[in-house]
Amino acid sequence: MSMLCNLSDLKTLLGISQDDTSQDDKLTLMIKSASAKIEGYIGYSLARADYVDELHSVNDRQLIQLNHYPLQSVQNVTANGVEITDYKIIPEYARWGRLYRGNGWSGGVYTRGFTHDVVAGMWEIVVSYTAGYYLPNDENYVEGAEDSLPYELVVLCMDLVKLAYNFEQLGATGLKSHSEGHITDSYGDDSCSVGLTESAKLILGKYICYGVA
Q1: 3-state secondary structure (DSSP) of residue 35
Q2: Where residue 120 falls among pLDDT bands split at 50, 70, 90?
Q3: Helices 7-14/151-169 angle, 10° precision
Q4: 9, 62, 111, 162: which one has the fewest Cβ atoms less than 10 Å from its Cβ?
Q5: Nearest-angstrom CA–CA distance, 192 and 163
Q6: Is the Cβ–Cβ distance between 74 and 86 less than 8 Å?
Q7: What is the reported pLDDT for 107?
Q8: What is the largest CA-CA distance in the chain?
């Protein structure tokens, strides 16, 4: 499971001594929870990983949309069993997992009717590649590097955990409303469990992929 910030930095943010390990397990779970909410909202895993023999269909376009991103490197591409080498990794496309080929991703197609109208490309393009970011706990993570998790996402994860932690410390987890006169508290099942704040959604909006136009 992805952890989009590390425990040490989070403890510094919360003012907890590194020598105090009494809350480490809880904080680790909170980091995982915040990370899962972030990835759930944008719709993909941010962690760097290798993806082998991912299958795609012919589309007669210059771009194919891979399932994971950002694209970091490509190990192998074949079309109908024949190796393809004339693709290019272009940064503005690779950011969204799009692999470019100037001649287009052409190949076999499915047709129908007497006029043999093309209805779909055959699923014969196979790609093995590496996608995602190095995360703060990875050995190769370098703050600010293009292949490392953008720092604003690291900070966002810590902020979400801090918010949840503070709610818990105040005994306000699940608090939906509060009034001073005669002290009326109302609790909901998710109101202050800290899903994603509106400001968090604004930050994450630019990390959502809307596919190839």
Answers
A1: helix
A2: low
A3: 50
A4: 111
A5: 9
A6: no
A7: 81
A8: 80
